[in-house]
Amino acid sequence: MPIVCQTVCDILQSFLKGDTQIMADEAFQNAVQSYFEVFLKSERVMKMVQSGACSQHDFREVFRNNIEKRVRYVQ
After folding, report:
1. What totals of helices (H) and strands (E) does the chain contain, helices first?
2. Mean pLDDT by 10 residues, the chain (75 residues)
3. Is the pTM of this model over 0.90?
4. What is the pLDDT of residues 52-62, one digit of tens each?
5. How far apart are CA 74 and CA 45, in angstroms?
6. DSSP code for 71
7. CA of 39: how far to CAs of 17, 23, 51, 75, in Å?
8. What CA–CA distance (Å, rounded) separates 36 from 38?
């Protein structure tokens, strides 16, 4: 696993375990869990990262879009 992807995975896992000082409500925790399980663990994403076709900016945009969709759904 490339270093950038591994770093993102490690940070998200720490957050989900409650090992960080980041305060969040249940909805945000669910969004992070979904992003981690559905996006970051995807074989397709792993292949994109390994080929250099995916950047940190791309990860942020997918996460931001995921959060925005969840907010629209709740409203």
Report:
1. 4, 0
2. 73 82 77 87 89 86 84 69
3. no
4. 888 888 888 88
5. 27
6. H
7. 18, 23, 17, 24
8. 6
